Amino acid sequence: MSDDPTRVEGRDPAPDETVAFGASSADGNDAGSAPSPSPDAAPGPPSGPAPPPGFTGATSPPGHNAPADVGPWTGYAPAPGYAPFSGPYPPAYAPVAYPPGAYDPRKSKMAAGLFGILLGAFGVHNFYLGYNGKAVAQLLITLLSCFMLSFVSSIWGIIEGVQILTGSINTDAAGVPLKE
Question: What tens digit of pLDDT does each residue of 2-49 get?
Fold first, then answer.
């Protein structure tokens, strides 16, 4: 039996009850540790920290499949001196039309062809056109073989350089046509 008149044998203290430090509860837990939940306790809403000031009870952002019994997204209240947002979002940025000659995303056919013929062993023409996988393969063949197999990459580069100059290869990796 316990000497404490406020304790009832066989149950854990309620959250608002206090137990002297060092005393044990009915299940043998120390009073300083968290009491174990009783098996017949009904599950309830989780108790957590209070929401921050100004929070108006948001449930989930729009488009995140909130449960049917949850209200609309309300979010935080506007800052003092600002009106709440009530209109549609501004339109997305339109693509910029560059003036003629200011910016041309196309790559030069002549530059790519010459890169292939002169620097094909290092894959420079493929890097220039955006074919990074082929370029790395050519570079690794040349470098990892200590230039002993560079003739393989050189022949490969010369063939691709001629194909670029003759028009057999006429786009870069993004599908943009090469300019003359």
Answer: 555 555 555 555 555 554 445 454 555 554 455 555 555 555 555 566
In a domain, 25, yes or no: yes
Cα Rg of the chain (Å, integer): 37
Q: Residues 139-153, buried b or exposed e (16+ Cβ, 10 A)?
A: bebbeeeeeeebeeb
Indicate the number of domains in the chain: 2
Is the pTM value of this prediction over 0.90?
Answer: no
pLDDT at 149: 95
Question: Among the residues of 72-130, which ranges form H helices?
Answer: 109-119, 124-129
**Could you list the residue range(s) of the whole structural domain that residue 1 is in?**
1-32
**Would residue 58 count as lying in a domain?**
no
Residue 74, pLDDT above cutoff 80: no
Q: Is residue 113 classed exposed, middle or buried when 0-12, 13-18 and 19+ CB atoms within 10 A define those classes?
A: buried
